[in-house]
Here is the input.
Amino acid sequence: MEASNEWVVITDEKGTILYVTPYVSKLSGYTREEIVGQNPRIFKSGYHSQEFYEILWKTILSGKTFNTIIVNKSKSGKLFKLEEAIHPVSLPGGEKRFIAIGKDVTKEEHLLREIEYFKFFDPLTEVYNLTSFIFKVNEEIKNNNALSVMILLDLKNLSYIN
Here is the structure.
């Protein structure tokens, strides 16, 4: 686990952090010494509601795994997203541990937003592409009861100029 590029945080049943992988330090900016002994609240971004955390605790205390994409905050204040699963583990003697295993999906989320953007906008001019233009014109025709006129100009060799 020490060499993995996985976010692994182990807590006791009160939420006190007992162990983290070096990747947790790398991603969060906190040293291992700053993290161990703390509550995972140290990473709280303010993005999730109180209800989210209540559902999380209710789920893991019932013995079920909690799967989510969670937004955390690094020591520098930068937000990062983890695809995370929190697994409850019962030890001999009745003690419980919670093992959070996650992977950073911040870059993937950013790329998905870019892909969505370029579905509807031209990358060079950053104006609507043909798909968006047709959609907007159709919406305007549906929503506008007045007489409308549209003029379409086809500039020769404009794509060549671009």
Q: What stands out?
A: The beta strands are 7-12, 17-20, 66-73, 79-90, 96-104. The first helix runs from residue 22 to 28. The two ends are 51 Å apart (CA to CA). The first strand starts at residue 7 and ends at 12.
